[in-house]
Specification:
Blueprint (H helix, E strand, L loop, with lengths): L6 H6 L2 H23 L7 H27 L1
Helix pairs in contact: 2-3
Length: 72
């Protein structure tokens, strides 16, 4: 089970780690949703937690891209 990350932890990650986190979180969301549809998921709040983690990570990724574009 993935631990929810706060913004400071996401900012501390490198670009490669952030991309890896986004990929694994996306895959985990698909797995958890499938478990939910088959009534095998015990903690249904996990779906929302994963979606929020993914949104935080994507926001950080986009902020880094915007910052890099502003410097150029």
């Amino acid at each position: 089970m993935a631990k929810t990350l706060n913004t400071a932890e996401l900012r501390a990650k490198s670009d490669e780690e952030l991309a890896s986190f986004i990929t694994t979180t996306t895959k985990e969301i698909v797995e958890v949703r499938f478990q939910n549809y088959t009534n095998q998921l015990a903690d249904t709040s996990r779906i929302g937690k994963l979606r929020r983690d993914l949104a935080r990570a994507l926001t950080e990724k986009n902020a880094r891209a915007a910052k890099a574009a502003a410097k150029a």
